[in-house]
Amino acid sequence: MAEEQGEEKTEEPTSKRLDEARQRGELPRSPDFGGAIEVLVICALLFLLGGGIVESLSAMLISSLTFSSPAVDAERDLPLLLGQRVLEGFWAVKWLMLSTFVVALLAATVNGGFSFSSKAAAPKFSKLNPLSGLKRVFGSQALMGLGRNLFKFVLIGAVLVGVLWAKRFEMLAISRDALEPMIMAGSSIALGVFTAVSAAIAAVAVIDVPYQRWTYLRRLRMTKQEVRDEMKDIEGRPEIKRQIRRRQRELSRGKMLDRVKEADVVIINPAEFAVALQYDEAINAVPILLAKGRGVIAASIKERAAKAGVPTVSAPPLARAVYFTTEIDEQVPEGLYRAVAAVLAYVFQLSALTPDLVAPTAPTPDVPQEFLFDEDGQPLTQRSP
What we know:
By secondary structure, this protein is mainly α. Helices cover about 60% and strands about 5% of the residues. A four-stranded mixed β-sheet has the order 3-2-1-4, sandwiched between helices.
């Protein structure tokens, strides 16, 4: 629908769209990066270990071409001898093979990572469509690939010509040497040329990696409508969202009720409201609201308080004032300090009461006019009990 309206794809792809592309086997890979890095590592190892590898392979070759009469007559031992020579050959180049394997893994990790996709492996009959094939051949991606290949061809040709021209006198000189020095010098020149060409390809590949990443993300861009549709799919239908919010409220309510046992007092309006307050002068000089509720939640707070032995004080105006003005874990407003202090003083007197003392009279806290509310949370113009 968005494409029919001609809406441009200006938004960056979301993580969901990137995951879907990865599942299809689409990764931002540079076709030359891995091979170029592997070849450079092989060249470096040949510079460092080439002499030892040549000596090992030469010894193996001499041993393989040296036969004795008993060895020739023992035809049954030839397969075993062949296997030994093959193992010797692999052992001679073990560091080349191991390094190539490790570098291939690291290069693949840098070059888009690993991904096995059954969708990518499945046959796609749409590729048999001639029109789709023509689009791939003459499309923008194909033209960019052609340009990249032409650039590589010109660059490799220029590097090759430059290196060979710089080595021209050396190559003419080795033609007058004996066979063994000529082979050694020729191998050194060939390795240098091979390294220079590989370095040129690697330079192109290093530039190509961010370019492939850029084109990959550009190809997966989305329209604003696609982003909105995806967000709707992620968030779900309105009824699902309501269920999630209801479940979140239930979890939050459960945590709140668990904290009632930490309260110092629960102030109630017996008809509907209950608020649980904590006062610890060492932590906070002002009382903190731990839990509040009305109706069923208020009944649960009072039940939890009874089980935990938390004192309950009936003070309807103060209960409503704290309920409508204070949120969980917040300090009670400054205007309610005196009223709350009167209730806390009464509670602390009860806790210190001994059998020979008369129980104090329950207080009637004086709540300021601006903190008086009815049961609907509307401010009262005059005091009501």
